[in-house]
Amino acid sequence: MALTVLRRFLLPAVAASLMCGGAAAQTYQANLGPMPLDEATKANMLGRGEATATLDGRVLSVTGSFAGLPSSAIKAHLIVGIAIGAPGKEALDLTVSPATAGTVSGKLTLTAAQAQAFRTGRLYVQIDSQKAPTGNLWGWLLPQHVDAPPGVPQQGPWFLPQLDTPSR
Length: 168
Fold this sequence. Notes:
Mean pLDDT: 81
Largest sheet: 8 strands, antiparallel, barrel
Number of strands: 9
Distance between the termini: 50 Å
Strand content: 35-45%
Order of helices and strands: HEEEEEEHEEE
């Protein structure tokens, strides 16, 4: 009897969970640039960088690099914005090199809401520096794609994840 119950209910449930749990990791990328930039802040907000983030289940791994800051980096965060390009609230801390050039990284377990923000492009990397303590470099994590060179129009389809919903 116990063996029949095991075969009939438990084994199919275990098999189904193994098949569903093996979803492919999702990799996104960010181009880090100075933001927001105006006449009052442009001297203190310089530099460029890049980052990639891979979501495997709810574990997000972030790696990246930056260079050209006018002062040393002091903090880095993942922030949830209300939309792509819109500032948000600080969410999670990352590790950053305390220098004008270096790396940013982190391995974080996301909540369901944070994972949804990642999948819809609302999660961004922010690096703070001594001269720009509220954000020197920012970059929204979007699905990996080929970037057109400077001055060349982007060819082919462009993907904005918050618009890729079944209701549209």
